[in-house]
Amino acid sequence: MESSHSILKKYWGHTQFRPLQEDIVNAVLHKKDVLALLPTGGGKSVCFQVPTLMMEGICIVISPLIALMKDQVQNLTKKGIPALAIYSGMSFTEVKKTLQNAAFGNYKFLYVSPERLETSLFLEFLPAIKPCLIAVDEAHCISHWGYDFRPSYLRIAGLREQLPHVPIIALTASATFAVQQDICERLLFTKEDARFQQSFARPNISYSVFAPISKQNKLLEILQNVKGSSIVYCKSRKQTQQIAELLKLHQINADFYHAGLTNQERTVRQESWIQNQINTIVCTNAFGMGIDKPDVRVVAHYNLPESLENYYQEAGRAGRDGKRAYAVLLCDKKETDDLIEQSNIRFPSLKELKDLYKALMNYLQVPAGIGEGQIFEFDLAHFSQTFKFNILKATYGLQAISQEGLIYFSESSFKPSTIVFESSKSDLYEFELQHPALEPLIKGLLRNYEGIFDYPSVIYESLLASFVGIPIATIIEQLKKLHQYQIIQYTPQSEKPQLTLLKNRMYADDFAFNTDNLTVRKEKYIERINAIVHYSLNKKACRSVIIGNYFNDTEIKPCGICDNCIDNRESAFSEKDFKKLSDAIIKELKTNELPSKEIENRFNQYNQQHLWKVIHFLQSENMITTTESGAFTLI
Prior knowledge:
single chain; alpha/beta; Rossmann fold; 6-stranded parallel sheet; 26 helices; globular
């Protein structure tokens, strides 16, 4: 058997593990349940991928994001490591073939969403798959008390009961101590579990908080002074578009991104930014998960986030290449006041939830006692207007109902076309004789989609048109005709928001809602609000220390390069010394462009905080700037 170091070298090209990675790998190899807290960009995947390659069997990786799954499978495949993924949009035949390959092929990784774990097809193949490890990515999603609770993650415990002797590794970038405890309990960790927490320090990221008179001007100043790739997070879709247009007016190559764009638009814009065709992507928090772009120089938040968990994860997308990067938060007093007031809007009363649920079922025209598994296109704005709900309160009310496992609501969800035959095979034969023009299409459906008589199969009209040799417009017209004749049930593709009923509609007198959970979630929400407000208003403590202590990292040291650290050192830095160092830096840059590391080396006789104070000053005065590669140069 190859050693962990030889595998790391062979597939990743590294001769050494990052801090804690080797310890985590060894714990997995000793069949322990493992909780690994590693910061964004801290190499979580290596912690389960390396030991899997040293074990017999396949690793089941549970992930909430299709983009993340596809990216991981693609990266593994490029390394010559066979991997598979099952995600929404795949046909029954594709899913079944993937599970067959996982069970009987020479594959090492199977990526699935938590919703797949309880399907009959998955459970049918599970004994033959014989997993050696279960990896739970974004593990904080399983905790009721976390900032991103997803009820579907609770299904993972059922998988544990099916495979009691298979170890679990749970990975997350951000979880408080209470959430860590909750993760271990809900995943049924054994008493001999192992827990690892890497330092939350990101020594190359300079954190800053500004409360400027004009956010627009401050953002422009930052992006004009720090060259290279950047992300700007905004609180609303409308704001992303407005800020992107503002940046373009000032010759900053920018575009906007949010969940309301079509699937194709989001893909094109994301790829353009990754390929550096766009410098700045202005986005909501729908952007960033599963994207590993190492050369991001600035992550700016135009508004105060709802939690330090969100902020740390999003800011951590800067500087993954280890070079100097900047995490900037722009906020004002009104934002902090509004955020504190949000708790009453975010957590409606039991009566408000009951009224909302009743209105929702009436809007969808679902009778009591039925509805489980039904999927609806759902217009939140129209629903709120119809029933006179405040749209913000309706949004959060739906989230609360979703967290109780009653519904699943996705604001933007590409839903491919589906078909299921409604006629019997004998009736279908008679129909073909009477409608010979439709026979090629019917034959094409039967040959390409296994199980199409039993349940809806995902189809792609373009592929079907290619197979049958008929123009796609004709294919769609003929599918609609078959639907009208009640030969098939044809549901065309949609990119509108989707709402799925996970349980039958409750009778009015039986409306059940766990108010204890809702109360605790509200308390935890207020704690998270207080933490991010404290971070934004604190003008003394090191930003990295504030973040680290929040996540129970008590060993973290002051970074020396955040705004507070620099301001705290300012009084000890005389005007004469400031001028001397400033002149020396300018003199060096007259002949060379210098990366941040080289500047630190050449001026290592100076206090690092003083050095970066001078550099920030020279940038703000438009005397120096950074190139796209991160090097400093004179303007």
